Amino acid sequence: MEKRGALRAFWQLFRGYWNSEHKWKARGLLAFVIGLNFFGVYLLVRLNSWYNEFYNALQQYQADQFWPLVGEFTALAMLYIVIAVYAIYLRQAVQINWRTWLTDAYLSRWLGGQVYYRLQVQNSDTDNPDQRISEDISQFVNLSLQLLIGFLKQLTTLAAFGVVLWNLSGSYTVELGGWEFVIYGYMFWFSLFYSGIGTGCAHLVGRKLIGLNFEQQRFEADFRFNMMRVRENSESIAFYGGESAENKGFHERFAKVISNFWQLMKQTKILNFYVNGYAQLAVIVPLILAAPQYFAGGIALGGLMQTVSAFGRVQDALSYFVESYDTIAQLAAVVKRLTAFTEHMEVAEDVKAGIVRQEEGQQLAVEDLQVQLPDSRVLLADCTLNLPAGSRLLVTGSSGCGKSTLLRTLAGIWPYGKGKLSLKAGSKLLFLPQRPYLPLGSLRRALYYPGTAAGSDEKLQAVLQTVGLEKFVSRLDEIDDWSRILSLGEQQRLAFARVLLTKPDWVFLDEATSALDEPREAEMYQMLAKELPDMGVVSVGHRSTLFAQHQQELRLAGDGSWILKAI
C-alpha cells in the first residue's frame, strides 16, 4: 500500500473503538495510562538531576552526602518501578477491552448476512478469515498501543531532556574563514541530526520487512489450515491411504514458510546490524562531544555524567522509529491483511440475495425464479411453482444441473439468482444438508441446533427413540465432538430429530438420507408424514425409492429448462 493509503487504512481500523459506545471509558483509561507514562518521564528527569549531585559528591569525597543520595535514588527508583508496572498493566487492560470490541465487530460482520458463506461463493482471495479475526486483530491492538504509547512517551522524553541537554551542552565556537560561529545547545542539534540520518537509513534498510511479514503470516496460516483439513477429514484420508499425498502437501506449504522466513531472517540481520551499530555509536558520541569541556574544567564529573545521560535519553527519543522499525513493519502487514479482509466483507455485504421473499397467501409460491452460476451460466429459468401446505416435491436431475443450488436460492444464501418466494405469514423453514453440522458441545445442544431452547429429557428421549438413536439417551449432556462419534447415517437421523423438535412449516432436504439404507430412508419420511402431517417437504435426491415418498417431481435439465409433473 502507498504511504497515504496505509495511514488511511490504519485510521479506519483504529478509530472504531474510540468512537464507539465505550468511547469515554476507553479514552479515560488510555489517558490515565498515558499520564502514568508522562509521570515516569518526570521521574527520569529527577534521576538525571540525581546523577549530577551523586557524581559530584563522589568526586569531592563528600561521604556525608553518599547515603542520603542513595536513599533518594532508592525512593525514586521504587516509585518509578510502581509507575512502570501499572502503566503496562493498565495498557493491557485497554488492550483486552479494545480487542474484545474489535473481535465482536468483525465476528458480527463475518457471520451477519452469511458473509462467511458469500466469501467462499464469490471465490474471494481472502485466506484464513479465522486467523485474521483471532491473530491479526490481537496483533493490531497490541502493536498499535505499543507504538502509540511509546511514541507519546518518547515525545515527552524529547521535550523534557531536550531542555536539559540544551542547558548542559552550552555553546560551541566554530572558526570558518576568519569568522567565528557560536552554536548554542550544540549537543542537542547534533543528536537531532544524527537521529534524522539514522531514521532515514533504517527505512531504506528495513522497508522490505513489511512485505516479508505479510507473506510470512499468510504462509503460516496456510500451513495450519492444511493440517486442520487433515484432522477434519481424517477418516476419508485413511480410507484412501492418502498419507503420502498429504505429507507432500505439508512439505510444499512448509517449504514456503521456511523460504520466506530465511528471507525475513536475512533482512532482519541487516537491520539488526544497523540498529545495534547505531546504538553502540550513540554511547561513545556524547563522551567525545563533552570531553573538551570536561578536560578544560568547564564541567565537573557530575555534569559530564548528567550530560551523557541526557544525551542518551534524547537520542533514544529521536531514535524511536529506528528501534521500532521492525514493529512498524509488523503492524503495516497486519493492517494490510485486515484492510483486505474488511474490503472483501464489504463486497460480500453489498451483494444482495437474488430472491425476494414476502409473506402472503396460504402456500409456498415461487414466481419467475432464475438460478445462475457465478460465471453467468443459467441453471434454471422462469420457474413458477405453487405448493399447498403439506405438499411433497422431489427435485431430480443429473449431477451438476443445479438441484442443490436451487435450495440455496430458496434459502436466500445464493446471490446469483432472482425471483419471488411467497409464504404464509410466520412460516418457519428448515434446510437439511447432506452432511449435518454438529456444533461442539453436548448432544443436547446438537439436537436443538440452530436454536438454543432446552426441552425436557422425556421429550428428547422420545425424539431419539423415534429416529432410532435411543442408545444415546444417557449421553445427552456429554460434551464431545459428536461429528466424530456419530456415523454419517446417525448424523442424518439426528437431523430428522431436529425437524421433530423444530416443527417447521416447510423442510428442504438436500440428499439428507443418502447415508441411510432404503428401509430406514422410507421410515424417516413416513415418520415425518405421521408426526408432522401439515409440514411441506421439498427433497433433492437420486434414488428411485424417493418417488414413493413424494407427490410431484421437478426435473431440472441444467440448461435452464425444467419439467413439473405429478408422481
From TrEMBL:
Keyword tags: ATP-binding, Membrane, Nucleotide-binding, Transmembrane, Transmembrane helix, Transport
Top-rank lineage group of the source organism: Bacteria
Record InterPro entries: AAA+_ATPase (IPR003593), ABC1_TM_dom (IPR011527), ABC1_TM_sf (IPR036640), ABC_transporter-like_ATP-bd (IPR003439), ABC_transporter-like_CS (IPR017871), ABC_transporter_sub-D (IPR050835), P-loop_NTPase (IPR027417)
Pfam families xref list: ABC_membrane_2, ABC_tran
Spans through the membrane: 28-45, 65-89, 140-166, 186-206, 273-295
Residue intervals of the ABC transmembrane type-1 domain: 31-330
Keyword Amino-acid biosynthesis among record annotations: no
Lineage: Bacteria, Bacillati, Bacillota, Negativicutes, Selenomonadales
GO molecular function: ABC-type transporter activity; ATP binding; ATP hydrolysis activity
GO cellular component: plasma membrane
Major localisation: membrane
UniProt-annotated location(s): Cell membrane
Protein name from the UniProt record: Putative ATP-binding cassette transporter
Gene3D superfamilies according to UniProt: ABC transporter type 1, transmembrane domain, P-loop containing nucleotide triphosphate hydrolases
Source organism: Selenomonas ruminantium
Domain ABC transporter: 364-567
PROSITE patterns attached to this UniProt entry: ABC_TM1F, ABC_TRANSPORTER_1, ABC_TRANSPORTER_2
Membrane-topology annotation of the record: Multi-pass membrane protein
